[in-house]
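Suppose you are handed only these lines of text.
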Amino acid sequence: MPVSSEPVALGLPLEADRLVLRDYREDDLESLHSLWSDSDVAKFIPPKGPRKEEDTKRLLLKALATQLERPRRYFRLAIVLKPDGEFVGDCVCRVHDPDNKEDLTHLLGEAYIGFFLHRRFWGQGYATEIARTLLRFGFEELGLHRIFAWCDRENVASSRVLEKAGMKQEGHFRESVLLGDEWRDPLVYGIIRDETKV
Ligand SMILES: CC(C)(COP(=O)(O)OP(=O)(O)OC[C@H]1O[C@@H](n2cnc3c(N)ncnc32)[C@H](O)[C@@H]1OP(=O)(O)O)[C@@H](O)C(=O)NCCC(=O)NCCS
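From them, the structure of the protein bound to coenzyme A can be written out as follows.
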């Protein structure tokens, strides 16, 4: 059954081995902005460059407002450490509106996932844990059939995470993403429900 006609199965917060993925709260602004104002974090993520506080506020407001939507299709979640709730990063699972035929991103899959971690947490396997958790959420809780993700072709760490989570590289688009003033090549990864071993 299409996602849009079902009541949303929430199942939040999501638990990973070492992390919890929970809904944002108003008091997360400072943590979220310390993440997105880091130029290394934002390096490959359009529109490019460290985000201004007003950009982060807009992101947080959207995350908060969409928590109330039914069916809920935008799951922007804070990633926190299990023991003490320390903020690790930001992640998203975005389900497309199947009734919006003009949004051609549905050709890539019913939903996409993405994850963005504070630099001090890189290289410890956290993003792989998050990707697996978001895929499990998409398939088991939301009943999705196919999920995609994309990253800049030079974002080697992100490519590796998507592969480790079981996604396959299916596309290399030429100069389809504008990053600052430069047209970049994204790699598109996909996974179908039956392929998941998460
Ligand atoms: C991309 C990102 C999420 C990865 O997070 P992470 O927690 O460090 O990822 P993991 O530790 O789970 O896995 C990283 C993998 O990439 C590999 N890797 C990292 N940098 C690499 C490089 N320059 N060359 C080759 N491999 C690299 C690591 O060795 C590891 O693979 P392994 O387990 O086989 O050794 C993190 O760097 C980040 O938040 N970047 C900024 C935001 C971003 O670009 N997000 C992705 C959006 S598409």
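What can we learn from it? The CA atoms of residues 130 and 154 lie 21 Å apart. The chain has one domain: 3-98+105-195.
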